[in-house]
Specification:
The protein has about 280 residues and is an alpha/beta fold. It has one domain: Rossmann fold (3-Layer(aba) Sandwich). Helix content is about 35%, strand content about 20%. The protein has ten helices and seven strands. A seven-stranded mixed beta sheet has the order 3-2-1-4-5-7-6. It is globular, with a radius of gyration of 19 Å. The C terminus is likely disordered.
């Protein structure tokens, strides 16, 4: 079994390759950069950003599994932090929502992605978006900075998810919130499929059970935890048929166990600021 550092190096190498490719090239493989599995349509994981305000086609590498920024309730003037910002796709959508009075900080630990995102921002003349090189388990962001944190199909790749959510809690202002799209598992995958699922996007290799994922968020201190969206990822028949016989394939496809995309919302309590949250008229005067 790989160590945390080995897993990080695998992800960094993979996404460095992806940074050098176009969206169309990434769409030709199940997880971009050609991960060795059958060719599938990118829509299996990714969702369509093209109608969102602030969308920048050059920043969209088709790597997400949801639309967290659309659901993040970003307001004008907010400070937004995008975890695993890649070429800047979600950061630029967030910028359009937060307006010139706000700020967006993207964090990524792949140097080539940071370079690509910065080049995109400079080309567009965006001055209230910055991209910082750093590890989500140890973010280069001060505490109590962000009004909103977003992330798209990234935290499943982080070996220490408890640390990642603890860091998310640290950088959020009291009363701030996050909206995160990610990949989780529900139920036990057929044993023969597990290797395929782990290969299936760099994407699923670090995924954990949905209930465990939500518990990590709770343990980090977050409240008002709720699912904003959930959908089962349909693994194409050409992949399933390699690993499962026809009976197993039918059982898997018709059952609930499998790989799911979820978008989760949660809040950092106001009480973390040392003030009691308002519970009745006059208590916050």
């Amino acid at each position: 079994m790989e160590t945390s550092e080995q897993l990080k190096n695998i992800v960094k190498e993979q996404y460095s390759k992806i940074a050098d490719q176009t969206r169309d090239e990434n769409a030709s493989g199940c997880c971009g950069a050609g991960c060795g599995c059958a060719t599938v349509d990118e829509a299996v994981m990714a969702e369509d950003y093209t109608n969102l305000k602030g969308y920048v086609a050059d920043a969209d590498l088709g790597l997400g599994c949801g639309l967290p920024t659309e659901l993040a309730m970003i307001k004008e003037g907010d400070v937004v932090v995008d975890l695993g910002s890649g070429a800047g796709n979600d950061a630029f959508v967030a910028r359009a929502l937060t307006g010139p009075g706000g700020k967006v900080i993207g964090v990524d630990f792949t140097e080539k992605m940071i370079s690509k995102a910065r080049a995109n921002a400079e080309k567009l003349g965006y001055h209230n978006v910055e991209f910082r090189y750093g590890d989500i388990e140890n973010m280069p962001v001060n505490e109590n900075i962000a009004d909103v944190v977003v992330s798209n199909c990234v935290l499943n790749l982080v070996p220490d998810k408890a640390r990642a959510f603890a860091e998310t809690f640290r950088i959020l202002k009291p009363g701030g919130h996050f909206s995160v799209s990610d990949i989780v598992l529900m139920g036990e995958l057929p044993e023969a499929l597990r290797a395929s699922a782990e290969m299936y996007a760099g994407c699923v290799s670090g995924a954990i059970q949905k209930d465990d994922y939500l518990q990590v968020i709770k343990d980090a201190g977050f409240t008002v935890i709720k699912l904003q969206k959930e959908r089962k990822i349909t693994i194409p028949d050409e992949i399933l048929s390699v690993y499962l016989n026809s009976g197993e394939q039918e059982k898997y496809s018709s059952g609930s166990p499998g790989v799911y995309s979820i978008t989760v919302y949660a809040e950092k309590p106001l009480a973390d600021s040392g003030k009691e949250a308002c519970c009745e008229p006059g208590c916050c005067d």
